[in-house]
Amino acid sequence: MHLNLPPTPAPGHLSGIRPRKPWLAGLLSFLVPGLGQVYNGRTRKGLVLLGLAAAWQVMGIGAAETFNWWAVAKAGYALFFCFAAWDALRAARPLEHYRPGPKNNPILYSACAVGLVTVSLLAGQAERQLFPVYTVAQISMRPTLRTGDRLRCKALRPRDIIRRGQLVAFEYPSEHALIFVKRVVGLPGEVVEVEDGLVYVNGDPIEEGYYAVRGKGAKSLDMPAARLAPDEYYVLGDNRFATFDSRSYGPVHRSRMLATPLYIILSISSEGEWRSDRIGLPAR
Fold first, then answer.
1. Per-residue pLDDT tens over the stretch 202-242
2. What is the DSSP string of 3-68?
3. Ramachandran region of residue 120, left (φ > 0), alpha (ψ -120 to 50) or beta?
4. According to CATH, what is the number of the domain 133-278?
5. Deepest of 98, 169, 255, 277, by most Cβ within 10 A of its Cβ?
6. Domain ranges of the chain
């Protein structure tokens, strides 16, 4: 009777073998795209995925100007992380006899993680500078804006032209800690007058179809005709009969203009109600 036994492994045959763990490979690439591939020994592919993730972060900043492109960029970035995790998990399954090479070391793993985190932080800082987000805290801009609307805005550069009817976020003239959002109704050099909620520029009424209807018993704060100095803008709230605006604190200097609102990215009422119907609405 003959027994067929498997050959006895040579001494040291199994030494150095460290099977790749699929769950760990997937987790690494989910946290840092490409890191799981480096863990699997696919260093070149891992670095390519890492570079794509970093480039996506930087290129995605410009997508913030329109809501649809911003949403697509965010969703695509999340899907890219999922793809990298799936690819790393799938590639790790057959690596039962994997021997770690010189590139499987904590230094390279750490460099990949630090690299992507650094790019993410820098891109996030740049996006906050170029496209800041402000939350509406008052009712002064109803019905255009509501309390709890989170606005993605575009930072104003010194050479940008500010037009009548444009919404602007600006620093309160006497306190830098306060940020207001109002509508520009008067431009530098113009003579502006407000009577019973209506705006007159150089003696003629301007066309306005955005401000709220007068509430019962509401009164308007009027302002006699006054000429704006160079680089001064007159701003009013759309809720003309319940707002704190240039009629109270005067014109706003151009240097205090920070950004112009683009669209609403989130809206939560003061009672905690999520208003999904307002997400994506343009702020104008």
1. 999 888 877 666 666 667 788 899 999 999 999 999 888 88
2. --PPPPPPTTSSTT-----HHHHHHHHHHSTTHHHHHTT-HHHHHHHHHHHHHHHHHTTGGGGSHH
3. alpha
4. 2.10.109.10
5. 169
6. 22-130, 133-278
